[in-house]
Amino acid sequence: MAQGTARQGKTVRSRAGRGRSGASDLVPSRRQYLDLKAQHPHAILLYRMGDFYEAFDDDARVVARDARITLTSRSFGRNGRVPMAGIPYHALNHYLARLLAHGHTIAIAEQVSEPGRGLVERAITRVLSPGTVGEAALLPEGENRYLASICPFGDRIGLAWADVSTGEFAVTELSGPRARDQLAEELARLNPAECLVPDDGRADDVEVAHRTRMEHWRFEPERARAELTRHLGVRSLVPFGCEDLPAATAAAGAILAYLERTNPALLPLLTGLRTESIDGWVGLDAATRRNLELTRSLRTGGTRGSLLGMLDETRTAMGARTLRRLVGQPLRDLSELQRRQAVVAGLVARPTLRAAITSSLGGVGDLERLVGRVTQGLGTARDFVTLGGALRAISPILASLRVSGDPALAAFADEIDPCTDVLTLVEAAVEDDPEDGARIRAGFSPELDAAREGAMSTRRWLAGLERRERERTGIKSLKVGYNKVFGYYIEVTRPNLARVPGDYVRKQTVATGERYVTAALKEAEARILAADEEIAALERAALARLTRDVTAATGRLLTAANRLALLDALLSLAVVADRGGWTRPVLEDSATLEIIGGRHPVVEASLEGEAFIANDCRLGGEAPRVLVVTGPNMGGKSTYLRQVALIVLLAQIGSFVPAERARIGLVDRIFTRVGAQDDLAGGSSTFMVEMLETATILRQATERSLVILDEVGRGTGTQDGLAIAQAVLEDLHDRVRARTLFATHYLELTALAERLADVANVHLAALETDERVIFLYAVRPGPADRAYGIQVARLAGLPPWVADRAASVLRGLTEMRSAPPPAPAERELSAPRVAEDGAPYQLTLDGFTPAPSEAERLARALDSLDLTALTPREALDWLFEQQARLRGGNPRH
Ligand SMILES: Nc1ncnc2c1ncn2[C@@H]1O[C@H](COP(=O)(O)OP(=O)(O)OP(=O)(O)O)[C@@H](O)[C@H]1O
């Protein structure tokens, strides 16, 4: 809370001790209220009333709904009663956090005092919007809170994001036919708390929560560029990598303009700008993030049960945020991944070193946000003491890394600036006094030392007063006390009242006696009050000086904090790898995938004592690119599919993997279509969502992608579903050529492996005994023989008479089919796809468009014909056939 801190040249004063009942003189007139409201018309105005913050009228209704507070009413100036929602002063942060989570902007009005003028009119002292909250108390610990900005500009889209609590400020520019999809992926990753968009409608079709419209001219590239260069103190943006990226520049400039307007104290935190290339990351769309439960479990809705939940052994909140970033942003850059792997490997091999670093990291704490607080001018003496402790903890970490003898660890240490100069500064300025707690150290400010000495001598005088007055009056029970109403007093009990000297002035009668003051006591009290005020002012000045000096190093401090946060995250990966017996995967630039003895990291951790059955997976290279996975319900198909995706993802964040060994050709994107998920609110049925996700995969996947499809086609009728599943599988095999795992209950699809060169079957093994099924969870070559649906239904507790009836229905159905299950519909691999109306189609980057003309097709076919391999007869046949196709099927016409 800003109480007592200098802000915008004014000092905020609370009327401590005044309850709601005493606040009636503070009630604004409607006019005063509306004047303040007009300054930030889109914000909820919270009005300080003694020990409460109150919202009125429509604001009150919104607060009551979203902060979950009971609505009452209040007399409002002379305008009768209005709805009112009151937030207790001590619980303000709690309720502000709720309001911000709903995307509201909040303006807080308090009484302010100005030097020499005492308390003056109320003013807005803070404006908080979801993306501009820099105050650690209002932020989720292990998560970043991003203010994003989107600027479509011609065929490009600029995206910028800033976390004003950690100083992260980055941009990227997206272009080409996939720009919109990439934007959606990035927004899914960032999950911005607030998103700035131009008010001219350019970004209206972008789906993002909590959008804030800004004047479109603020997104004008030249203006934004000027804003950026001024802020960063540079002439060109070349060093930041975005000189030639007008859309990115525009988006970043808009962020600066917005902060300037809403919360300029945050601007100094943004000391640099990083230009990111989206091509460096593995593409993960929102569905895949959700399906793989990367940061949120589908079952619990929280981190527990997610990949992040099982990986997170970080010691600091900044480490936890970094780990979340790594999990959400796997890389494609082989050399960077190998650097990370080397650090993890060094840490896996050295448990003692890990323990030492972990304990030192505890001392570093959340350095990122601490630097954030200090840079915003919110740093108290306690914060600086903590900062000193954090900086002191860095050097031992670097020393441990260097003496480890591991070159990767030593190199990592060399990249971290211990900021010893800042530590020296802070140590000279603050101390943790055993009695007074955190305070400015003696010697930092001579004026402060003198004021403290003055106050101390008066306090010493007061401390001796009781003894002196007892001696003077002979009243042994005389006491010197203090209360808030009268200040210092001398109390004499009833039996001794006759001995009270003449210079005592009676102030108050209490049950046991009388309370007095003397002229000397009043004077001492005045001296103490004045000295306390002076001390407070001098301390503020000293803190301001220290803040200025430390803030000059904000950029270096934040860089060091970022590296330490990364170390914490990599350490966490090492701890988990060591505990789980994970191994270092071989990474390579190929389209191969080979996992031997792979396990699902989260399911394995949840099995508690039961053994997880490890399985292999070979895709691409010498092995088939597509695996059709069959097996009984509950047999472990989904687990197997997800485990392969998670192992690849772990490898591409630089982690070890839960496998005996793995060789992973880096993937450019991971796609999943798993389980039933409907979006009724968005107007899409389960089947519609399934098809939307499948269409996205077919449109976007490449030869380097990993595709995980679980029961595609399940959401519709059996025949339609089977047909769709087969067509999707064929397209993935023939055209997309991505490494694909395809789990299905349609046993008919297993016949595809006989016709398609790069498709193979595997199944999850199960045993059947007495109508019961035992799951072996082992992946074996070849197709499953049946679905075991009825046995699983029995296991689930379906009433026996229903299960028996189902078994007899099944027998009947099987007998009806004299022939084996129908083979999948035949088709010619070379035949062009034909839509229902007969028009041929092909897939381009823009979706399905008409195929090339017959002449083009003929030219290509001729081009690819190897004439030396044909007999004259075959060549003649070929010519007849082509002519027939041109003439519509009549060769000798
Ligand atoms: N390899 C394994 N080792 C041990 N237990 C496993 C293994 N794989 C799966 N399981 C257990 O079996 C349960 C069911 O697995 P899963 O959901 O993958 O089956 P499924 O074949 O996809 O089922 P359905 O077809 O009904 O969707 C898991 O929750 C897990 O507890």
TrEMBL record:
Residues holding ATP: G631, P632, N633, M634, G635, G636, K637, S638
> Which stretches make up the DNA mismatch repair proteins mutS family domain?
705-721
- One MF term in GO for this entry? ATP binding
Report the CDD domains cross-referenced here.
ABC_MutS1
**Region Disordered, annotated ranges:** 1-25
Q: Which GO terms describe its biological process?
A: mismatch repair
- Spell out the GO cellular component terms annotated for this protein, sorted alphabetically and separated by semicolons: cytosol
Against Pfam families, the record matches this protein to: MutS_I, MutS_II, MutS_III, MutS_IV, MutS_V
Spell out the InterPro entries in the cross-references.
DNA_mismatch_repair_MutS (IPR005748), DNA_mismatch_repair_MutS-lik_N (IPR007695), DNA_mismatch_repair_MutS/MSH (IPR017261), DNA_mismatch_repair_MutS_C (IPR000432), DNA_mismatch_repair_MutS_clamp (IPR007861), DNA_mismatch_repair_MutS_core (IPR007696), DNA_mismatch_repair_MutS_N (IPR016151), DNA_mismatch_repair_MutS_sf (IPR036187)
Give UniProt keywords alphabetically: ATP-binding, DNA damage, DNA repair, DNA-binding, Nucleotide-binding
Q: Which domain of life is it from?
A: Bacteria
By its UniProt entry, which HAMAP family does this protein fall under?
A: MutS
**The family this protein is said to belong to:** Belongs to the DNA mismatch repair MutS family.
Q: What does this protein do?
A: This protein is involved in the repair of mismatches in DNA. It is possible that it carries out the mismatch recognition step. This protein has a weak ATPase activity.
Q: What is this protein called?
A: DNA mismatch repair protein MutS
Q: Which organism is it from?
A: Sphaerobacter thermophilus (strain ATCC 49802 / DSM 20745 / KCCM 41009 / NCIMB 13125 / S 6022)
